[in-house]
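Can anyone check this?
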Amino acid sequence: MDNSRYASRLRTAQAPASTLRRRLMAAGLSALVVAGAITITALTPGRASAAALDQFKQFVSSTQSAKGAFTQRMVRTENGTTKVVNTSSGSFVFSRPGKFIWTYQKPYEQVIQADGEKLFIYDKDLNQVTTKKLGNALGSSPAAILFGSNDLEKNFTLKEAGDKDGLEWLEAVPKSKDTTFDRIGIGLKNGTPVAMELHDSFGQVSLLSFDSFEKNPPLKVNSFSFTIPKGADVFNN
């Protein structure tokens, strides 16, 4: 591992709670690329339709847990040209509310996990675990859309955003001012979220696509219990 990468990730692992919250929100859920198409277009209302909102409410009410795979891309637009600056992929499993395992497998291994009460961030390369109370950390974060409670309209203003890339889109705007995200796009197909667009207050866009999305799979009672790896350094926040 090169020293600059090590130093950067070490600083992140030892970051204060506010930085960890941003990391959870960015890693737990971002925006999307559908079928590999790197197209970033503003979410503007298309045809008048309640399809996306209806699909999403049905998903929330009928899905207590799920698992699948994800691909995440961070994109940046400079001088009118959009380019991917970071790509990662992995798997996820969740049980609402507040229990999830978000595992990065590439380009390096990292686990972001919550057992309903505590949040754990494990960096395998550094053998470091950062922990904090989950509390209201999900709140108006992108992670709350999949992992939070069913009462999403308490924390988000939801509205139709038309159709794009063969999906029905919903826009979620956080009601809280204490968030780094301006808006979150949710792309649905056949009642399942397959993509998300996450726009932060710094003008950055994260793109996320889901694959092999399985609703309500059988899960063991202790599926979300986190065990501190042997010899790992632990930072409590």
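Reply from J.R.: I decoded it. The helical segments are 3-13, 17-28, 51-62, 143-147.
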